[in-house]
């Protein structure tokens, strides 16, 4: 389970341990460390996205508009054991809320709440992840003449993971805060280059990992991703005071170039 419960997250974090082509295989301690600080997420939160799609489209007909609060609520709905509620608000150039987006819409706000437990099962492992997450996001630059869309947001949450594989059972408790800072996309979505042209995502995690009911091990981490035009991304990860910085290209199979410190 320690390799499969968060395989995608570990793969991304592994880049921060890798140094070009000469790096030896990751040690088990590094894999455990990556799993402990990785946040599997609910995969439904708009914050910290690194692809396009931040646009003011009309909500589904199943969503409800509240004329008093001026917010539209979608859900709660369920997905893979998780309960998801989304709220959104559209605003014109004066900041006046709108029931539906139109050509006068210039910005939108959204709130997302995710709670519940996901079950993970593979041929060699089983596990559960209990999630509690809330986020707020603002998107500006939605006018028809705008060249860019800018996303700012915050999120907080906690995840408790328990999983078992052939080596035993690992329990991980995490709390985290995310900040999406001036993450900027071209207003016209380009599927060939869907990544931000500037901006930053910052994630702070505090975690405790316990293997086979042994002595808990504590981790603190800070991950910064800084985006540049053309898909260049600089990833800086600090775990328990040790920092590694990697520079890579989104959408490329070329390994990132990494430095210690």
**What percentage of the residues does DSSP assign to strands (E)?**
over 45%
- Name the assembly state: single chain
Rounded average pLDDT: 83
- Note the main sheet: 13 strands, antiparallel
TL;DR?
The chain is mainly beta and 261 residues long.
Task: Please describe what this structure looks like.
The chain is mainly beta. It has one domain. It has 2 helices and 13 strands, in the order ααβββββββββββββ. Strands 1, 2, 3, 4, 5, 6, 7, 8, 9, 10, 11, 12 and 13 form a 13-stranded antiparallel β-sheet that branches. Helix 1 (7-17) crosses helix 2. The two termini are 31 Å apart.
Descriptive keywords:
261 residues; mainly beta; 8% helix
List the helices and strands and how they pair.
Layout: H1 7-17, H2 28-37, E1 64-66, E2 71-79, E3 82-92, E4 97-98, E5 105-122, E6 125-140, E7 148-165, E8 168-186, E9 198-211, E10 217-228, E11 232-239, E12 242-249, E13 257-260
Antiparallel strand pairs: 1-2, 2-3, 3-4, 3-5, 5-6, 6-7, 7-8, 8-9, 9-10, 10-11, 11-12, 12-13
Helix pairs in contact: 1-2
